[in-house]
Design a protein that fits this description.
Elements (H helix, E strand, L loop, with lengths): L1 H13 L3 H79 L6 H9 L13 H8 L8 H38 E2 L4 E2 L2 H4 L2 H39 L1
Antiparallel strand pairs: 1-2
Helix pairs in contact: 1-2, 2-3, 2-7, 5-7
């Protein structure tokens, strides 16, 4: 093809057809430019398709990870609410059981203060993507915002889980004085009805209520984000 164009140019120059040669040269240059632009467009198109595949695969992975988180949140919420109800029952006994007829029930609930939910997700999906450099793959800014907000919520939940654990460890030494674990026996029943232990119970109730609210918000956020990602895939 190149030899063919060269022969045409040489023939025009021999025949002193300069104007025609000039027009022809311009046309030849335009053909070359158009060819380059087409090649660049095709290359960009291929890159766009490749990036789209990467983004779609990333969304699929995110959905699986977030669904696992959702199951974990729901399980922890059920566990938290189970013992939250028990702690409320203990508070009612302390206030209303003036004859101390439910001491054994109160003592059993006291041993359950060592049971608490613990979602414990130290690294959110957003942090993982930021560390791996994959955040730029996500073109949907709404998804990025949801991921970032979810990461902040996880941090809040994790801090509350740690606080709950620390408070539980401050209560545990008291229980070892009040109760004998095996064989089970209430050693100091009056202490279980004391205002100090009641305060401990009320503090655990307050934490349980706050955790339930955070778990509920996490459920809502996770479900919404999963739906948003599924829409992107469809």
């Amino acid at each position: 093809m190149i030899k063919f164009f060269r022969k045409i140019r040489q023939q025009m120059l021999k025949e002193n057809k300069f104007k025609k040669y000039l027009v022809y040269a311009i046309g030849e240059i335009m053909l070359v430019v158009i060819g380059i632009l087409i090649a660049v467009s095709i290359n960009n198109w291929k890159q766009s398709i490749d990036l789209n595949k990467v983004e779609q695969n990333l969304y699929s992975d995110l959905i699986q990870e977030l669904q696992t988180d959702l199951v974990g949140i729901q399980g922890n919420r059920r566990y938290n609410n189970k013992y939250l109800a028990r702690y409320n029952r203990a508070s009612e006994i302390i206030i209303n059981d003036t004859q101390k007829q439910l001491t054994d029930t109160l003592a059993i609930i006291a041993t359950e203060l060592t049971n608490f939910s613990d979602f414990n997700n130290e690294e959110s999906a957003y942090n993982k993507l930021a560390t791996s450099g994959k955040l730029e793959v996500i073109t949907n800014k709404e998804i990025l915002t949801h991921l970032q907000n979810l990461g902040l919520l996880y941090n809040y939940i994790n801090r509350l889980e740690k606080n709950h654990e620390q408070i539980m460890f401050t209560i545990l030494p008291k229980l070892t004085k009040y109760l004998r674990i095996k064989p089970f026996q209430v050693i100091m029943p009056e202490q279980l009805y004391d205002y100090e232990f009641h305060n401990d119970i009320e503090l655990m109730i307050k934490i349980g209520i706050e955790k339930d609210g955070l778990y509920e918000q996490a459920e809502i956020d996770l479900s919404g984000l999963i739906n948003l990602l599924e829409e992107e895939l469809n």
